[in-house]
Amino acid sequence: MTDHNDGYTDTSSTNPDFATNPEAAVDGIRLQKVLSAAGVASRRVSEEMISSGRVRVNGKVVTELGRRVHPETDKIAVDNIAVQLDTSRRYVMLNKPVGVVSSMQDESGRPDLRQFTEGYEERLFNVGRLDAATSGLLILTNDGDLAHVLAHPSFGVAKTYIAKVEGRVSAQTIGKLQSGIELEDGPIAADKARILTSPPGDGFTLVELTLHSGRNRIVRRMMDAVGHPVVDLVRRQFGPLQLGTLRAGAVRDLTKVELGQLLTVSRAEVQK
């Protein structure tokens, strides 16, 4: 079973001998016990994982069963997938409906995200934003470090959108979206773009766009710039997470596999 974790400081900041002498962490907790408590596997299976070289601590393979770690600071990964050791952290996927603003308290009194977080004990907040007219995948969490990495433009986590746009989109237009266009706040290019459906006549076209940019209303502005205004827009994917069949207005906790994938992406972005 593979799993997950999230950001921290290096153990060497609390114990300067740790980087050169792993056994300096004698006051920590045995690694197999930590893995078991995190729900990765039973303690016996965790020991087998460690012995077979499947577990990393702070990026280095650990095979000693006596190894002790600090769950608050050490980065643990199993099969190169991050493990979350802090059980107080919550990660929720929301399919945000159209008409809801991406705020926990809208000053203008518009429908906001509080209606989706009231059932949780934790104080959750949104990772990034979707404009009120856009629906789709939004992450809610109480993990500030993860939220910062995933939402900050400098880290550039990929997002995939499906846009229903006016008119018939040509292959040349798709090429232009991928090669780059100039907007008022600078150039932008989609990582990927493709036509999903292209009806006859001058109806509507479904276009799938993947991009890293976190700029405001970027998909709508890109499609406006190529002459195909967006009629409807849904975010279907955020990093490794996919919306799937989650209905509009529904929420669910991330699975352990999803969380591991998300935290792994987060760590990789920080290390770039």
TrEMBL record:
<feature type="domain" description="RNA-binding S4">
    <location>
        <begin position="29"/>
        <end position="86"/>
    </location>
</feature>
<keyword id="KW-0694">RNA-binding</keyword>
<dbReference type="GO" id="GO:0120159">
    <property type="term" value="F:rRNA pseudouridine synthase activity"/>
</dbReference>
<dbReference type="InterPro" id="IPR018496">
    <property type="entry name" value="PsdUridine_synth_RsuA/RluB_CS"/>
</dbReference>
<dbReference type="InterPro" id="IPR050343">
    <property type="entry name" value="RsuA_PseudoU_synthase"/>
</dbReference>
<keyword id="KW-0413">Isomerase</keyword>
<dbReference type="InterPro" id="IPR006145">
    <property type="entry name" value="PsdUridine_synth_RsuA/RluA"/>
</dbReference>
<dbReference type="Pfam" id="PF01479">
    <property type="entry name" value="S4"/>
</dbReference>
<dbReference type="InterPro" id="IPR042092">
    <property type="entry name" value="PsdUridine_s_RsuA/RluB/E/F_cat"/>
</dbReference>
<dbReference type="InterPro" id="IPR020094">
    <property type="entry name" value="TruA/RsuA/RluB/E/F_N"/>
</dbReference>
<dbReference type="Pfam" id="PF00849">
    <property type="entry name" value="PseudoU_synth_2"/>
</dbReference>
<feature type="region of interest" description="Disordered">
    <location>
        <begin position="1"/>
        <end position="23"/>
    </location>
</feature>
<dbReference type="InterPro" id="IPR000748">
    <property type="entry name" value="PsdUridine_synth_RsuA/RluB/E/F"/>
</dbReference>
<feature type="compositionally biased region" description="Polar residues">
    <location>
        <begin position="8"/>
        <end position="18"/>
    </location>
</feature>
<dbReference type="InterPro" id="IPR036986">
    <property type="entry name" value="S4_RNA-bd_sf"/>
</dbReference>
<dbReference type="GO" id="GO:0003723">
    <property type="term" value="F:RNA binding"/>
</dbReference>
<dbReference type="InterPro" id="IPR002942">
    <property type="entry name" value="S4_RNA-bd"/>
</dbReference>
<dbReference type="InterPro" id="IPR020103">
    <property type="entry name" value="PsdUridine_synth_cat_dom_sf"/>
</dbReference>
<comment type="similarity">
    <text>Belongs to the pseudouridine synthase RsuA family.</text>
</comment>
<dbReference type="GO" id="GO:0000455">
    <property type="term" value="P:enzyme-directed rRNA pseudouridine synthesis"/>
</dbReference>
<protein>
    <recommendedName>
        <fullName>Pseudouridine synthase</fullName>
        <ecNumber>5.4.99.-</ecNumber>
    </recommendedName>
</protein>
